[in-house]
Prior knowledge:
Layout: E1 11-15, H1 22-29, E2 34-39, H2 44-52, E3 56-59, E4 76-79, H3 88-105, E5 111-117, H4 146-163, E6 168-173, E7 176-178, E8 181-182, H5 183-192, E9 197-200, E10 206-207, E11 210-211, H6 212-224, E12 231-235, E13 241-242, H7 243-254, E14 260-263, H8 275-281, H9 288-299
Parallel strand pairs: 1-2, 1-4, 2-3, 4-5, 5-6, 6-12, 7-11, 9-14
Antiparallel strand pairs: 7-8, 10-13
Helix pairs in contact: 1-6, 3-4, 5-7, 7-9
Amino acid sequence: xxxxxxLSGRKILVTGPTGQVADPIARALAKDxxxxxxxxxxDAEKRASLEADGVNCVPLDLETGDFFSLPDDFDYVLNFAxxxxxxxxxxxxxxxxxxxxxxxxxxxxxxxxxxxxTGVYQPKGHDLISEDDELGDNHRCMMPTYxxxxxxxxxxxxxxxxxxxxxTIITRLNVPYGNNGGWPYFHLVMMKNDVPIPVHVDxxxxxxxxxxxxxxxxxxxxxxxxxxxxxxxNLCGQDHVSxxxxxxxxxxxxxxxxxxEYTKDTIESVKTDNTRLRELVGDARVNWRDGLREMIESxxxxxxxxx
Length: 307
């Protein structure tokens, strides 16, 4: 495993810093780098919070693809922006076309990281899914445009990496979670409100979640592995955990009882192979139980049993 170049004193663009995943990344990198955050910044408090942590916030709507007001001398671009609506034309334009314009504008970067999703894979039951497995319309039942828009964005990124000779890595992100939230947190809120949690009839619903601390720690290694053509790697944790299992554990911590609704109209298991990731950046370090406990302690310590 190569030793990544330290991320210090670099000029870094992070798109989507108001989102769950990119927020802690932007804040962490801003401690030692000149970090620029690109988003619409409709939430003034969120923008002020990011700026207080050293992020230079640049309001820009991805739909326009107008990056001419943005500097083009970044060392690295970390593209975490995502748009999810029921409108295919809108989402293809915002996720695919805009990424192409961004890569064209920032074609002189040392490396470009594009965050995709394991939602691009064709379901494979409870078998491990590797980067070479079939793609499919995984999220249609919940977010009709999501999988197709993300696959389309990957195609644009692959093209731009070769066309502009940009070292690029595409990370297919499994379930991200942490103190900034995530899918397990949504399930915790559903448990708190006695709302049934949908799980697929092909039980258990297995995923390979990754804590935000591990994502932050892996960024230097990921961008050091960027290449032309673009490298593709699953971004996931060490443990394969089911919705049923993490909800039961959160129930132990809080005294809440999860209720499950078994249905075909929800996402099937997405259990991903982390071999390529481990070869590139090493093992994820946060145990899923420790991560969930920390998440609850951070967001709702009063919900813990005996609090």
